[in-house]
Amino acid sequence: DIQMTQSPSSLSASVGDRVTITCRASQSISSYLNWYQQKPGKAPKLLIYAASSLQSGVPSRFSGSGSGTDFTLTISSLQREDFATYYCQQSYSTFLFTFGPGTKVEIK
Amino acid sequence: QVQLQQWGAGLLKPSETLSLTCAVFGGSFSGYYWSWIRQPPGKGLEWIGEINHSGTTNYNPSLKSRVTVSVDTSKNQFSLKLRSVTAADTAVYYCARRRWGNEPFDIWGQGTMVTVSS
User: Which of A6, A51, A90, B42 has its C-alpha lying 20 to 30 A from A64's C-alpha?
Assistant: First the structure.
């Protein structure tokens, strides 16, 4: 199995802050890394796919980077509607998809 | 605009079979894989398994012995059965779509809370 880890597990930030979340895979996954945003009581929403491609309709303040085992999700200027939990997910192994444990972004 | 709408029993007793169905509206059923993903209360996401329009399936090895995902292409629906449930299977269950290949889950259903309790 490809194990995914995220750091931090939670963070507190203010509106307007730049926020960075890190995801690490237990083996190289090339660029097959996706990011999702989940708000309480809602299904996850795809933000970034293939490490750095912005899903249609997602604000440009979200960006992704990385390849191999280390990846980053950046929110350039945090907005109130961005307070949520963020998950990374690898799609390198199409026989067993795995997600990171999540990073909760809270209001400071 | 593709939408996934899911339904099924929300309360089960231990040893019963969980059964959920997801319907695809507004888009093609072929050319995609259709997945089930679950999330225990307060925890992260676990991929359960998937199927394509031809009936080809992939399952999470940790659940494979208890899971069946099936498809009804005439109705644009796919279903999940999870046998011999325990309290550990209590979770929100989501259906989701991904394109063939190393693609993300781009469309999700609304989720169904399933509780296993005696």
Answer: B42
